[in-house]
Amino acid sequence: MQRKILIVGGGIAGLSLGLALEQRGIAADVVERLAAPSPSGTGLYLPGNATRAIASLGLLDRVRANAAAVPSQAILDRRGWRLTETITSDVWARCGPCLSLPHARLHAILGAAFGESRVRHDVSVAAIDQSSGLCEVAFTDGRSAFYDLVVGADGIHSGVRRIVRPDVRPQYGRQVCWRFITHNVTAIEGWTAMLGNGATLLGIPVSDTQAYVYADLTLPAGADPESFRHASLPELFHAFAAPLHRLLERSQHDEARVHFGRLGQVDMDDWVQGRVVFIGDAAHAASPNMAQGAALALEDALVLAEVLAAGQDLDPALAVYSERRRHRVRWVQRQCATRDKMRALPALARAAIFGMFGDRLYRRSYAPLLAPP
Q1: Are 201 and 244 in contact (CB under 8 A)?
Q2: pLDDT tens, residue by residue, 78-135
Q3: This prediction's pTM
Q4: Cβ 194 vs Cβ 217: under 8 Å
Q5: Please, how many CA atoms are within 13 Å of residue 306, restricted to the half-sphere of its CB?
Q6: Whole-angstrom Cα distance, residue 299 to residue 275?
């Protein structure tokens, strides 16, 4: 008997799961709270485990044709002195290429493959009742329906999680970030990060002519994050030199749509709550410093689709999903926390550690992710 499945969230996690299920002969309904796909002005860096997952969906050629290859990762200090460089194409060789592209482009590729017209927009979930053993879902448009399984793929601010696990909320520190895509006026060729005291700049090419820029800052204790939303980035990061400071100057131009936000993390003890399961940032959002948000969401989708297609009862299948994902996700979250602490070290200690051990630390951080999920 065909299970009736609802996916809440039409982003990368939700579309990937819908497509992975369809490829295994399983249909799913997908709802998205936004009225239309959002034209995000941010970028995505996809390490080899992310592109391996994309290849499993049959989309690697399409993604590669719309992305920039990123064969190396360099870390500089705020003055532009190189501390370490890793040839990432060698590290990820057995998985897939490291690529970077606009977020909206990957979303469009997934939407075209799944069928964006099949996503019901401007609809979310108002309530979920599991008392009957099924999920009776009340939608925000007044409809209701029964489902065997509901998948929360609706991001760090998951509405599904607020319904079934109101005790689990994103945990925010003092870090805020700005993100935008602009002209690559500095001609950076690889993943390039600059570390300052309580601040980071990152630039990544996403096409032949464009770069994705990410900046984060640790705020003083008690500071209001909202007061930094419209801050002048060139002034705020004035201590940073070439090559990235020139990209910050582009944030003042009309074509650079700057996205502001706080960095948060989601820690859940169990991603399965009866017949509700969580994937992606709704389950385990983490610091972006390992660039694993999209990668883990893609992997979650593939693993969940695989166990649901295996034919076993739903409860054991969901338990297998959790077991297969737990160690990998926990590893990433621990590594993100460790790397954030390392970035917060005094400048001389930070420079010494990255200068002597940077390449080795990179390879150690990502080693468990080289194996298939």
Answers
A1: yes
A2: 999 999 999 999 999 999 999 999 999 999 999 999 998 899 999 999 999 999 999 9
A3: 0.95
A4: no
A5: 15
A6: 20
- Which parts of 115-226 fold into alpha helices (H)? 159-164
d(CA 294, CA 280): 8
| Site of tokens 């150690």 | 364
H or E element that contains 278 = strand 276-278
Instruction: Tell me the per-residue pLDDT of 349-358, one tens digit each, with 9 for 90 and over.
Output: 998 999 899 9
266-269: long-range pairs with CB below 8 Å, 24+: 266/156, 266/161, 266/168, 266/170, 266/171, 267/168, 267/171, 267/333, 268/161, 268/165, 268/168
Tokens of residue 182, six digits: 């602009």
Helix, strand or coil, per DSSP, at residue 231: coil
Q: Give the type of residue at 273.
A: Q
Q: For the CA atoms of the chain, what is the radius of gyration? A: 21
Length of the chain, in residues: 373
Q: Which domains does the chain have, with CATH numbers?
A: 5-170+265-370 (3.50.50.60)
